Amino acid sequence: MQTIAFSELFPLFNSASPETLEWVMTNAVEHDYPAGRAVLMEDAWGNAVYFIESGWVKVRRHAGESVVTLAVLGKGDFFGEMAILDESPRSTDVVALSSVKLFSISAQRFIQTLFKDSQLHHRMLQLMVRRLRQTNFRFQLRRQPPAIKLANVLVSMAENYGQRKAKSIEIFNIPMKDLADVSDITPEEATKIMEKLDSKGWIRIDPANHVVDLVNLRQLAHLAGRI
To answer: Mapping DSSP to helix (H, G, I), strand (E, B) and coil, where does residue 95 land?
Structure first.
């Protein structure tokens, strides 16, 4: 992969110096995981940061005997940085939702890179603040109706990871329990809302190919309260 394509794929690196990009690409280790495979385990010590080249993963946390999905991440995103930055065990699991291609950078080399490239360091802070803002926004939505919560998740998925097609934006068909968790609603509510959106023609669910086409993103954004 060329350095320009690399920086375009991964927002974290779009302001990094050419030297940093070359160094990262030289030292990165590639990984392939099938759907359902655990990539990282909770309570394990952080030894690398992972970047998603293709596919989808879910970030989950064990709560007693149950498991709650906290986030779904797609192409261009990264995970594993928190355990490295605060030198503590990981607080979540990461599991592949689809077949996924990743590359990793060891903790020591990643920290060295942040120190060497101030632009990369600043960009890292920006993206982590953005994640915090997204968490705050989800907290603000907690009293909103289920349809508004779910619409916000769909719009966010489209904005962050969607693949633009001729007349729609394609995202992964997230399992209903995971979609419900990240939307902070019940699986029954999520199923009912997705079926209604499909019947209205705002989305098109394609279970065979594990994708959802967001056909009318404007209406979804309006439902989400974003326009």
So the answer is: strand
Last residue of a domain, one of 84, 109, 139: 139
CB 178 within 8 A of CB 210: no
**Structurally, how many domains does the chain consist of?**
2
| Order of strands, sheet of 38-40, starting from the edge strand that comes earlier in the sequence | 38-40, 93-96, 57-63, 66-73
Place of tokens 């997230």: 174
Residues 62 and 151 placed together within one structural domain of the fold? no
Residue 138: pLDDT band (50, 70, 90) is confident
**Per 3-state DSSP, what percentage of the chain is helix, strand, and coil (rounded to 5)?**
50, 25, 25
The enclosing domain of 218 has a CATH number of 1.10.10.10
Instruction: Tell me which residue range forms the domain holding 180.
Output: 144-223
- Would you say 109 and 27 are in contact if contact means Cβ atoms under 8 Å apart? yes
Phi, psi of 15 (to 5 degrees): -120, 10
Half-sphere exposure of 188 (CA within 13 A, CB side): 0
pLDDT at 200 over 80: yes
Note the pTM of the prediction, 2 decimals.
0.91
